[in-house]
Amino acid sequence: MAIWLNKDSKVIVQGMTGATGMKHTKLMLGDGTNVVGGVNPRKAGQTVDFDGTEVPVFGTVKEAIEKTGANVSVIFVPEKFTKDAVVEAIDAEIPLAVVITEGIAVHDTASFWAYAGKKGNKTRIIGPNCPGIITPGQSNVGIIPGDITKPGRIGLVSKSGTLTYQMMYELRDIGFSTAVGIGGDPIIGTTHIDALAAFQEDPETELIVMIGEIGGDAEERAAAFIKDNVTKPVVGYVAGFTAPEGKTMGHAGAIVSGSSGTAQAKKEALEAAGVKVGKTPTETAKLAREILSA
């Protein structure tokens, strides 16, 4: 089992013919992802050869869905064009759109997020500024390295791309049902809570690892959700204990203002909800390992 992505997922790549799109389409295909097409209106009708795998290019997302039955789009479009690309995916009612692009204006993200809601939330958005989603051994959509783990019993949801990779590697002997990088921008589509709810319902996920970071109140809200709705064990890590107040750290959303959004406050909220919180990624992995071996 898995959440949102599996071996039957049919993936299109918006921006496939650009340098980044080409690079990661090749890697996704190498991980077994069923990439059925790319989207570029200027190159519609062409095909791209990825080491013997011919992938057609379509003019629109709607056409790609009609011709291939695609149900996932991964977006590698430059930031100034990303809003239009996401809106196109929403209009085509593709079930899942994974937005890898970073540096998108918050106003643009707010706009396409609100547009998805106006259209009935038929498209789940993951990102932007995220590494994507991987169900090891089945499908990999985004930029997560496909060779650092294996299928297993842990569900992972993370704001940080780098920490996603580290946690997957630390627990590679146990493996993951699905790992989701939700991104660290101030406004994102899929949240910690969305992933926690999905992992709670997934019969193959036995333990959930949640990685947060300073800034905002997403982790506190997730803690409240865990307390009321999640019966599976959850292990957490919050990045940014040593971050100075008022300074943006890496992600646009990772900024502490006064006592709001500190790592310590998030750690305390999670622990109050019964989540075991590690002080480092390695300690967090150790806590997960101890729970699963108990």
Automatic annotation (TrEMBL):
Classification via InterPro entries: Cit_synth/succinyl-CoA_lig_AS, Citrt_syn/SCS-alpha_CS, CoA-bd, CoA_lig_alpha, NAD(P)-bd_dom_sf, SUCC_ACL_C, Succinyl-CoA_synth-like
Keyword Coiled coil: no
Positions annotated to bind CoA: 17-20, 43, 100-102
Pathway stated in the Swiss-Prot or TrEMBL entry: Carbohydrate metabolism; tricarboxylic acid cycle; succinate from succinyl-CoA (ligase route): step 1/1
Stretches assigned to the CoA-binding domain: 4-104
PROSITE patterns from the UniProt entry: SUCCINYL_COA_LIG_1, SUCCINYL_COA_LIG_2
Binding, substrate: 165
EC assignment: 6.2.1.5
Catalytic activity: succinate + ATP + CoA = succinyl-CoA + ADP + phosphate; GTP + succinate + CoA = succinyl-CoA + GDP + phosphate
Entries under PANTHER family matching the protein: SUCCINATE--COA LIGASE [ADP_GDP-FORMING] SUBUNIT ALPHA, MITOCHONDRIAL (PTHR11117:SF2), SUCCINYL-COA LIGASE SUBUNIT ALPHA (PTHR11117)
Stated family: Belongs to the succinate/malate CoA ligase alpha subunit family.
The protein's name: Succinate--CoA ligase [ADP-forming] subunit alpha
The organism of origin for this protein: Streptomyces misionensis
